[in-house]
Amino acid sequence: MNGPADTAGPDRSGSATTRDLVYHFHKMFDGSFPEVPSTLGPSSYMLLSSIALQPTNSGKPPVILDLGCGSGRLLQILVELGSPQENLHGVDFVPEQIARAKQRLGDTAVKLICAQSQNLPFGSGSIDRIVIHMGLATMLPLERTLNEINRVLPPGGKLAIIVDGRARPDTIDQMYAKIIYQAVAEEQPDLILHATGDKRVCDPVSLCELTARHTDLILENDVKPFELLLRMASWEYLSFLEGEYLWELLSHSGRDRVRTAVLKLFDAHKNKPATIPLAMQLMVFEKRADHATAD
């Protein structure tokens, strides 16, 4: 879901809170993202897959890391698209998600590891492509995660990420963001500033400045904004939202108030499915050998 248009860095004291919320959520829920069409054509999973599978400069199939792999759906797609299984790695910091990924992938050679993004269990320059689907903002502290990504990528290696975008005014997603953030701010005012992680991730200018200071990564092409086009009835949308970890911050009465407010957003649709555009951005960074990393 889209958050406030605040691009300032988070209160670093909130890092543990963010990790705890994400960890608790992913212990209970699958974590796979809905596979729906986007305004760029394929699903968001397929957008990342097309970048991950690009051959290396040597022409060999790339070694790919799905960082924050969740239950392994993106890795499963990469297997289905013909990526050599021994070249695929998935890392998640929640053991329950790694267990789900192992169940999903079954008897394959995909390597799944429970580890932190700030301490990746790979040698320097050993990973050709890193993909992150909607998780980078919660990999705190972000500077340490970026340092590790930079370390394991060789020159010419690529990082492809999908993050929240800026929702169009008066869409259901934009109005829901106002509802949930107001509810959390009323009940947990000390947590709202950092509950969604590092907001610099969703601002291309801030993220490019951050990568320039801490890595050898540069933005490969223009940022690609797009929307996922969910088609859901009100009850389906509520079920989808209740899997969002921000709900963990609300009391039972707070959740009831949010449910009531969300149902009103569907009044004009008379209980029929509505198209709900979820704003996202695709960014691809490449590691350059001739780019001096700042201290």
Shape category? globular
Main sheet characteristics: 8 strands, mixed
Structural class call reads: alpha/beta
Strand content: 15-25%
Number of H- or I-type helical stretches: 9
| Fourth-tier CATH superfamily name of the domain at 12-168 and 197-231 and 278-287 | Vaccinia Virus protein VP39
CATH class of the domain at 12-168 and 197-231 and 278-287: Alpha Beta
Tally of DSSP β-strands: 8
What is the fold named in CATH at topology level of the domain at 12-168 and 197-231 and 278-287? Answer: Rossmann fold
Nearest-integer average pLDDT: 89
- Return residue spans where pLDDT drops below 50 for at least 5 consecutive residues: 1-14
The H-and-E topology, N to C, reads as HHEHEHEEHEHHEEHHE
Distance between the termini: 34 Å
Radius of gyration: 19 Å
Q: Would you identify the CATH architecture of the domain at 12-168 and 197-231 and 278-287?
A: 3-Layer(aba) Sandwich
Q: Helical percent range?
A: 25-40%
Short synopsis of the structure:
With 295 residues, the protein is an alpha/beta fold. The protein has nine helices and eight strands.
Architecture overview:
There is one protein chain. The chain is α/β, with parallel strands linked by helices and 295 residues long. The protein has a domain at 12-168 and 197-231 and 278-287: 3-Layer(aba) Sandwich (Rossmann fold). The protein is built from 9 helices and 8 strands. Strands 1, 2, 3, 4, 5, 6, 7 and 8 form an 8-stranded mixed sheet that branches. α3 (73-80) links the parallel β1 and β2 (88-92). α2 packs across α3 (73-80) and α6 (172-187) packs antiparallel against α9 (252-265). It is globular and about 55 Å long. The model is unreliable at 1-14 (pLDDT under 50).
